[in-house]
Amino acid sequence: MCTLEKRGDLFLLTLTGDDEHRFHPDTISSVLSLLEQAKSQSTRGSVLITTAHGKFFSNGFDLAWAQAAGSQTGAVNRMHQMVESFKPVIAALFDLPMPTIAALNGHAAASGLMFALSHDYVFMRNDRGVLYMSEVDLGLPLPDYFAAMFAAKIGTSIAKRELLLSGKKIKGEEAVALGIVDSAAHDSVEGVVEATVSLGESLAAKKWNGEVYASIRKSLYPGLCAMLSVTDKIAASP
Amino acid sequence: MCTLEKRGNLFLLTLTGDNEHRFNPDAIATILSLLGQAKSQAKRGSVLITTGQGKFFSNGFDLAWAQASGSLTGAAERLHQMVESFKPVVAALLDLPMPTIAALNGHAAAAGLMLALSHDYVFMRKDRGVLYMSEVDIGLSMPDYFAAMVRSKIGTSAARREVLLSGKKIRGEEAVALGIVDSAAHDSAEGVVEATVGLAEKLAAKKWNGDVYASIRKSLYPELCEILGLKATIFATPKL
């Protein structure tokens, strides 16, 4: 389902298997647990890279699991459960005491895209993979912290509208133009991962104090952090 | 003064007559009423296009009507009245359960530009028409919801400064570069309207649930919605 490896300074979090990497309660707790592991093992110069196998980075919440509840109320409850339990994953990424990079091997939709955007840097492929907020097409309003994420991370009104109100599947080049991702320069998964490893290594070389890094990161997104109950309470010795 | 027509899925709101389409209390009440009508007739696939006739989309509030009150206090009160009564128009657009497109036939200034920016998409002409926030030139400070609109809809600090603090009359090409409008590709009012109809038909074909659309839209602009007294909470039945 997901693994955490260490390669020198780099933590590599991988969503394994050639499937849609849907976020289901089990996946969500695994990811959370691995992020906590990375946090506990972090040192100056640590960097996290998150990626996945196959065609999908993640296609969002496990809607099939929600529907398997057998009733409308049951489905809504399961959806709500996933939305609520995913919030700590986002919080953990904002709180992580090291730079974070998402290396998108493929499609990122809905909470899968939220997961990507929770990283400091997002790289995607030029040739394959789209970003897609499916909510408007599915008839689902946005959870509050999703809306706050977009308000925080996506600068222009036009980009927000294109992502959230058009049902568009946004490819690499457009995602860069809209300022949603940092790079869509590579034509293969290997190319993307290599580029993120290279960025990871140059960030690691700075040997930053991770707690200070996280504190500065959180200070950029006060509204979102308040909603995620992520507090900023350090005073480091410079 | 203004009309609402239905063409298939599209609602077409037109500020009629070859004049400045200034917003005085009557015009404001009429627009509000027509938006209420569009809302009540909304269904999956509905889209609103707002446009004007003549050289102006709208040149803002009716300052002449304000001055006609005969005294400085009277003028200030009338201006205040227009500012307050226009707020529900902006709120109604942000709340409208369908995608909204402004097709600028000509100049949009002050409250007229606010009306345009209240739409999800703004198309203007390439060859004619400017966007102009006149407040700094006239010596009027900004109503709270105007400032919130500019903060919400205009992304960069430099663009916001160009719009509000320079007294500049911004033409199509620059408006696109600043990220204020989506398109300034057409050299005629008909071209703009045709392009907006083209976009509207694509959006209509999605057959979105309008209440969910409006809910997502409002969640993008929480600060503005709060100032306008709009709530963004609905629980829709998802298409699972």
TrEMBL record, chain A:
Alphabetized, the UniProt keywords read: Fatty acid metabolism, Isomerase, Lipid metabolism
One molecular function GO term is: delta(3)-delta(2)-enoyl-CoA isomerase activity
Family matches, as InterPro entries: ClpP/crotonase-like_dom_sf, Enoyl-CoA_hydra/iso
Which reactions are catalysed by this chain?
a (3E)-enoyl-CoA = a 4-saturated (2E)-enoyl-CoA; a (3Z)-enoyl-CoA = a 4-saturated (2E)-enoyl-CoA
Q: Which domain of life is it from?
A: Eukaryota
Q: Name one Pfam family in it.
A: ECH_1
Q: Give its E.C. classification number.
A: 5.3.3.8
Tell me the GO BP annotations in alphabetical order: fatty acid beta-oxidation
Q: What class of enzyme is it?
A: isomerase
Q: Which residues form a coiled coil?
A: none
Q: In which pathway does it act?
A: Lipid metabolism; fatty acid beta-oxidation
Keyword check for Cell division: no
**Assigned protein family:** Belongs to the enoyl-CoA hydratase/isomerase family.
The protein in question is named Delta(3)-Delta(2)-enoyl-CoA isomerase
This chain's source organism reads Brassica campestris (Field mustard)
TrEMBL record, chain B:
Q: Per its record, what are the GO molecular function terms? A: delta(3)-delta(2)-enoyl-CoA isomerase activity
Q: Does the keyword Isomerase apply?
A: yes
SUPFAM superfamilies for the chain: ClpP/crotonase
Question: Reaction catalysed?
Answer: a (3E)-enoyl-CoA = a 4-saturated (2E)-enoyl-CoA; a (3Z)-enoyl-CoA = a 4-saturated (2E)-enoyl-CoA
Which pathway does the database say it acts in?
A: Lipid metabolism; fatty acid beta-oxidation
* Pfam families hit by this protein: ECH_1
Organism superkingdom: Eukaryota
* Assigned EC number: 5.3.3.8
Kindly give the Gene3D superfamilies that the UniProt entry links to this protein.
2-enoyl-CoA Hydratase, Chain A, domain 1 (3.90.226.10)
Indicate whether Lipid metabolism appears among the record's keywords. yes
Which EC class, in a word? isomerase
InterPro entries the UniProt entry points to: ClpP/crotonase-like_dom_sf, Enoyl-CoA_hydra/iso
- What are the alphabetically sorted keywords of the record? Fatty acid metabolism, Isomerase, Lipid metabolism
GO terms under biological process: fatty acid beta-oxidation
Q: What family does this chain come from, according to its entry?
A: Belongs to the enoyl-CoA hydratase/isomerase family.
Q: What is this protein called?
A: Delta(3)-Delta(2)-enoyl-CoA isomerase
Species the sequence originates in: Brassica campestris
